Amino acid sequence: MSLVSVHNEWDPLEEIIVGTAAGARVPRADRSVFAVECAGEYDSQDQVPSGPYPDRVLKETEEELHVLCEELTKLGVTVRRPQQRDNSALTRSSKGNDHG
Fold it and tell me: DSSP code of 31?
C-alpha cells in the first residue's frame, strides 16, 4: 500500500514523494531499446554507453531536488524521499529479460 494517497487532481498538494538521483545510471540497452533508439548510431547494442552518470551531474541534480523539497516543505507539503539503493544490480522481468 502506498504511503501517499491521491483522491483527485484539484485539491491542494499535501504530501509528495520526491525521488533521488543518487546512484542513477544509464541502463544497458536491450534489443528493443537498441532497435528503436540506437541502431542508427551504433553497430551493436554492446557499443551503447551505459553505467553511472558523471558525479557532477548527480551532485547538481541532488542539490536541485533538495531545493525543491525545501520549497515544498515551506508550503506545508509533507515530502518523502526514498532511501538510496543499488541501481547497478540487475533486475529480471517476469519474462526473464535482464535490466540494469
Answer: H
